[in-house]
């Protein structure tokens, strides 16, 4: 099973409600948090939606 690790680098303050919900869906809510997730198309879509707030490390 392939995984992808994401680290939150941007703040959810002053972001739209759907972007904050996407961060929560990825298991992130504070800057510097790291989450390891399955590499699925739905997760990739969520990452793409908030890519300006994340750093992605392929794993």
Structure description:
With 59 residues, the protein is of the alpha+beta class. Helices cover 31% and strands 27% of the residues. The mean pLDDT is 95. The termini are close together.
Write the layout of secondary structure elements.
Layout: E1 3-8, H1 17-25, E2 34-38, H2 41-49, E3 54-58
Antiparallel strand pairs: 1-2, 1-3
Strand order of the largest sheet: 2-1-3
Major sheet details: 3 strands, antiparallel
Q: Could you report the average pLDDT, rounded to the nearest whole number?
A: 95
Residue stretches low in confidence (pLDDT < 50, at least 5 long) are none
Helix content: 25-40%
Rg (CA only):
10 Å
Distance between the termini: 10 Å
Query: How are helices and strands ordered from N to C?
Result: EHEHE
Class by alpha and beta content:
alpha+beta
Assign an overall shape.
globular
Q: What is the number of strand segments?
A: 3
Strand content: 25-35%
Q: Which assembly state applies to the chains in this document?
A: single chain
DSSP helix count? 2
Keywords summarizing the entry:
59 residues, alpha+beta, three-stranded antiparallel beta sheet, 2 helices
């Amino acid at each position: 099973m392939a995984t992808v690790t994401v680290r939150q680098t941007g703040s959810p303050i002053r972001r739209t409600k759907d972007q904050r919900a996407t961060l929560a869906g990825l298991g992130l809510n504070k800057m510097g948090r790291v989450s390891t997730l399955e590499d699925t198309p739905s997760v990739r879509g969520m990452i793409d939606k908030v890519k300006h707030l994340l750093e992605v490390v392929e794993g």
